C-alpha cells in the first residue's frame, strides 16, 4: 500500500510539473521580440489570426493552471467561495478560449485534417465545460464533477500534444506535415476516453459498495 501511495504521489507530482511547465511556456509567446519556431509558418500579419490565437493561448494557459486547484478536495471544503470564484474564471476562460481556438484552427498550415482535429477539440472543450457549468447551475453536483473531469481532459490536450509531437518527430522521425495532423486528434481523444473509462469504473465501484436494502429481507 505504501508503494502504491508513493507511486500515486510521484505521478501526481510529475503531472503537475508538466501542467505548469506548459502553462508558463505558453506565456513566452507574449514576450516582445520573440517568435517561437512554431509560429514562423503562421500568418503573423493577419490581425484576425493574431487576435484568436493569442486569446486562445492566454485563456488556455489560465484554464490549464486553474485545473488542479478546482480538483482539490481541501479547497472545495475549506474555501468554498474561492473554489466558486476560480471555477467561474475557469469556465469563462474556456468558453471564450475555445471559440478563439476554433477560429485559429482554420489557419492550420498542415491542411484540413489538422484543422478539423483542432476544431473538433475546440467544440469538445466548449461543450464539456458548458455542460459542467449548466449542471452546477441546476444543483447537479455529481454531474458537474463528471463534466469537469471531461473538460479538464480536453484542457490537458495542451500537455499531451507537447508529449506526443516531440515523440513523433524525434523518435519516429515523422515529417512535421505528417506528425501534426495525427497529433491534432491524438492529443485529446485518448484523454477523453481515459476519463470516461475512469468515471465508469468509479461509478461501478461506488455501486458495489452501496448497501442493498433488499439483502437479508
In short:
The chain is mainly alpha-helical and 217 residues long. It is built from 9 helices and no strands.
Structural summary, described in words:
With 217 residues, the chain is mainly α. Helix content is 78%, strand content 0%. The chain is globular and about 60 Å long.
Taking the sheet with the most strands, its summary is: none
Going by helix content, strand content and strand pairing, the class is mainly alpha
Write the H/E string, N to C.
Answer: HHHHHHHHH
Q: Work out the helicity level.
A: over 70%
Poorly predicted runs are none
The tally of helices reads: 9
Query: What is the β-strand count?
Result: 0
Indicate how many domains the architecture comprises: 1
Distance between the termini: 36 Å
Mean pLDDT: 89
User: What would the principal axes of the Cα set say about the shape?
Assistant: globular
The value of Rg in angstroms is 19 Å
Strand content: under 5%
SSE layout and pairing:
Elements: H1 2-27, H2 47-70, H3 73-78, H4 80-105, H5 112-137, H6 141-155, H7 157-171, H8 176-186, H9 189-209
Please describe the structure with a list of short key phrases separated by commas or semicolons.
mainly alpha, 217 residues, single chain
